[in-house]
Amino acid sequence: MPAQGWWYGNRPLDREAVRVPRTDSKTLDALVVGAGAIGLACAWRAAQRGLRVAVIDREAPGSGATSVAAGMLAPIGEASWGEQALLDLNLASAKLYPGFVAELESASGRAVDYRRCGALHVALDRDESEELRRRHELQGSLGLDARWLRPRACRELEPGLATAVTAGVHAPDEGEVDPRALVAALVAAVERAGVEPIAGAGAVEAILEGDRLAGVRTAGGDELRAARTVLACGWWSGAAEWLPPRARPPVRPVKGQIISLRGPEDEPLCERIVASQWVYVVPRADGRVIVGATVEERGADLTVTAGGVHELLREAYRVLPDIAELEFTAAVAGLRPGTPDNAPLIGHGALNGLVLATGHYRNGILLAPITAEAVAALVAGEEPPPVSEGFGIERFEGVATL
Amino acid sequence: MPAQGWWYGNRPLDREAVRVPRTDSKTLDALVVGAGAIGLACAWRAAQRGLRVAVIDREAPGSGATSVAAGMLAPIGEASWGEQALLDLNLASAKLYPGFVAELESASGRAVDYRRCGALHVALDRDESEELRRRHELQGSLGLDARWLRPRACRELEPGLATAVTAGVHAPDEGEVDPRALVAALVAAVERAGVEPIAGAGAVEAILEGDRLAGVRTAGGDELRAARTVLACGWWSGAAEWLPPRARPPVRPVKGQIISLRGPEDEPLCERIVASQWVYVVPRADGRVIVGATVEERGADLTVTAGGVHELLREAYRVLPDIAELEFTAAVAGLRPGTPDNAPLIGHGALNGLVLATGHYRNGILLAPITAEAVAALVAGEEPPPVSEGFGIERFEGVATL
Predict the structure, then answer these.
(1) What's the complex ipTM?
(2) Which of A189, A208, B22, B361 has its CA 20 to 30 A from that of A37?
(3) Using the beta-carbon criterion (under 8 Å), do B303 and A327 form an inter-chain contact?
């Protein structure tokens, strides 16, 4: 077993916490492949049911799509035409969040900076106003709490807004969480729940017993046997060469770039999430500000580009000009997992014993609680929540994959 | 003596090279305070004359203004109205560059990436065209080699230029050098010349003998006695609290931000320096590109700001749109030393034994060779080159300082 410690950011976790899994004697109930927000949440919920669980990752926890997530919990802003089932899933997960966070903070002893701060979507010209109006009508028809505001009312909510703002929609129930803090808390909670995390352990070979997936062999040569193997490795799920081709889900990498800024804690740039058609600005309670995110179909490219940084700064500056004064602390690129319809894959895979928890695209942080509920039920042999039905691999049958 | 090694960037220099200066027995001929490009060049040239020299710095070599220098050697582009003496100084130093570099590379065994690549100054609208035309007329009246180009001719030189370019001025003699490579070579040359570099050694107290400056005491408690003390610590020269107030030169920090990009070596963004009224783009032979620089009067503030990065990217993108594809590798802020007229201070200071080599503002890299010639002559008790006369402290007598 590779003796690497778990890392999150620059902080090495306690080496004592890296334990060799007790797999010699017994088969796991669930092996989770991928230690992002999704995989860790699934592992935690499964372990809470008394299941014997392990989670492996070839890299550090949260180093995939989680590392470029802004942590917006904004199902209303994400609502789009013809996506009722996805909206319901997003709303269900958002509803779970307060309880999920309270339980996680208690279980881990760590804060995750969850805030139901609300979101203000603004338009900056006539075209954007019309688009915002269309979205607001959709939100109204779906019974969502989203209130149309005139420019002056927008600036009363957020005095830092550009004077060019022509209209806004305020969704007071939207929230945010710090994805890094979330992952750190999940790592702690998972460990406290007795789950054995193994870093630096990528899956390299499936253990197949006929049509049944019975576990994986890792890059370190270890054999991890499990009744269920949960595929939760983000975009990499679609490139899982260790799985038989027909069992690989149609997931592609979708590049995103975000930038991190820092301002004074006592003089926040804005109080709530502020978004235009082109950018979102997520303020943290401590003065940090995340600006995201580009959406680029460039394959598995992790280059931070001048164009990406420029576009994010330009659009953020259009909305909140005071952003110019903030400290520029980082620009990061990451890869989100996208499916053909950009909705997640939650359900049984194309092999017996394979469970899918991937394809969460731009909403992995939001969808972690509901995905974890569904996956924990599936690995326990129970019924998942009805709202998560319809997100299985079946919907892509007959669809040409990557 | 603090035992810290010399650092340049992330590369610790050979600890063997950190020698305790032989100051116990004898007084130095020259003590240079400040190990930027200017201080190191002065120390090197002085040591070459057989003088006994030491150079100290509270930080690593080149960590001041040098760290945000793009390395443009562009006296023609810098030419401005009513600054004939400064133009002559800039031209004289540019003329010294090929020989200075050849000698330095030979003495240090290191390349400094000097290229006489030329510069193309472009305009992007009618106002900028008129300003460029005025500058070109000035350049013509001064007999400088700067050629007016129509848009098509500009794009023949630099095919990556934006189609919005309305005019250009080509100055084929302008050049560039890599300031980091220059400093690393100067450190090596200085060491080979027997100069004892001491890092982590800020001056904290003047050793005064009547009206004569006889050396300094350092933060480490060491006493360094010298016949001449060369003040070459950039903007910090004006904040030298260890000097009597009347001996502190009027030098203020002028903040600059630059960004570093990287593109493919075999497909350069541009062949020569490309500048607009608002930005300059300096390509290196290895595919790196430096975009500079903001000029901000904010005191000693080293914050990289969203506004600074945005402005540089926006203006660079206006000129060379392909910049969007380049990798964004760094954004850095630094402080240039500015005098009341933004021309350098080269000459004797207000105390006997004090020599000034500071205030080089945006042209420290360009002016290093001529400054070093002048300072080496002054510490040797010789006449400096006539072109460097007129840059003494006398010109600010009666002027209110900072």
Answers:
(1) 0.83
(2) A208
(3) yes
